[in-house]
Every structure is written in structure tokens, then in C-alpha cells.
Amino acid sequence: MIRFLIAAAVLAFVVFTFLVVRRWFMERRSRAELFERVKPLHDKLENKEEITEQDVRPYAEDILTREPTYALLKHYERTELFPEDYYSRIRFAESDLANWLEFPTELGVCPDEIEHVKKVPIFGESEIHYYEVFRFRVGEPHWIADEGWMLGVVGPYFDNSEPSDFPRATFSRLSSEKNGADSGCAIRSSAAREYL
Q1: How far apart are CA 69 and CA 163, in angstroms?
Q2: What is the per-residue burial (b if ≥16 Cβ within 10 Å, else e) of 67-83?
Q3: Tell me: the pLDDT tens digits for 101-153?
Q4: Cis (ω within 30 of 0) for the bond into 156?
Q5: How far is residue 70 from each of residues 42, 60, 126, 127, 152, measured CA to CA in Å?
Q6: pLDDT tens, residue by residue, 152-191
Q7: What residues form DSSP beta bridges with 134?
Q8: Please, are residues 51 and 25 in contact by the beta-carbon 8 Å criterion?
Q9: For the chain, what are the domain ranges?
Q10: Contact 85, 98 (CB under 8 A)
Q11: Which of 34, 39, 106, 180 is deepest in the core (most CB within 10 A)?
């Protein structure tokens, strides 16, 4: 019996270690891929080349490069180049969700369509914070295309949050919007729980 328990513990440790290491490598690869998308802009900034808002616009328009582009411009103290029409909480939350969904443990791809649904307030003890709710879907031949519209939530944001503030929590529900609403698709945070 003791040998069985030891063998089970060793097996559990090996499986746990494999999963942790695998996730670490996937996250690292994902970050490297994200950097590659903005590398041409990074190189221009690093080399102090002349850059205009028109050079930055394609990166801001792309849902997957919007967030890292602003972070890059902030690092180089050039945020004035970021197009004003993309500097909003909804645009940054949308980008955060798309990058989250592209992660291999979620959809593994950027959604084909994504739409803002609503801003949900959460009433805390001393302040109100908000989550931005989106619906998204992917087309064939993706394995989850048959689900149709699904839900994603990004936040929390506060009244004094800047549009570019990084949200602490991004969630997605990989089942249909209808099923999500019927089952009470929950927004969970350490402070509160609210249902859509």
C-alpha cells in the first residue's frame, strides 16, 4: 500500500511538473510571438528613427498589436504618436481579450469577430469598478465554431482608470452566448461576483 501511495505521489508530481513547465514554455513563446509583431516599430524607436502617427496607426488598428504598441510607445515616452481614435477603454479591453483568446489554453486564435456588449458595474464597499463585456466568435474550421457567439469579460476598471491601464482579470466562456446567459455566466474577482 505504501509503495502504491509513493508511486502515485511521484506520478502526480511528474504530471504537475510537466504541466507547469509546458505552460511556462507556451507563455514564453506567446510573448515572443507578440513581440515579433511589433518588432519593426520597436527597432525604429530603439534606433531613434523618425516616426509619425501614420507609422503607428496600423499597429493600433490591429486588435492583437494595439496593447503592446501603446506599452512600447509608453516605454519610449512617445505616447503622443498613438492614434486618439484607438485610445479608449473599450479598444484596449478588446485588444486584451483578443490576446487572451489567442493563448493556446483558450481559443488558440484571435476571434474572427468581436463586439462590445456592455459595461457592467460592480458595487464594492468603498468604490464602484467596472468590467467590459464582449461577445466573440470564430468561423470554421475552428473546433468551437459551432458554438456561435461566446462571452468574454475584461476588468476591473475604476472611474479614475486610464484607458490603457492593464486589467487584472480577463475571462472567457467558451460556450455559446445563449448557454452562457442561461447558466449565469459569472464575472469573478476577489472583490465581487456579478452575473450577466
Answers
A1: 14
A2: bbbbebbeebeeeebbb
A3: 998 888 999 999 999 999 999 888 888 899 999 999 999 999 999 999 999 99
A4: yes
A5: 11, 8, 31, 28, 22
A6: 999 999 989 999 998 888 888 787 655 544 333 444 443 3
A7: 116, 152
A8: no
A9: 109-196
A10: no
A11: 180
Q: Report CA-CA distances (Å) from 101 to 48, 91, 107, 123, 159.
A: 33, 15, 5, 27, 26
Task: Identify the bridge partners of residue 119 per DSSP, sorted by sequence position.
Answer: 132
Share of the chain above pLDDT 90, in %: 58
Amino acid 172 reads: S
Q: Which residue has the cell 515616452?
A: 77
Following DSSP, what letter does each residue of the chain receive, concatenated? -HHHHHHHHHHHHHHHHHHHHHHHHHHHHHHHHHHHHHHHHHHHHHTT----HHHHHHHHHSTTTHHHHHHHHHHTT-GGGS-GGG-SHHHHHHHHHHHHHHSTTTTSS--SEEEEEEEEEEE-SS-EEEEEEEEEE--TTSTTGGG-SEEEEEEEEETT--TTPPPSEEEEE-S-HHHHHHTT-EEE-SS-EEE-
CA distance 127 to 86: 27
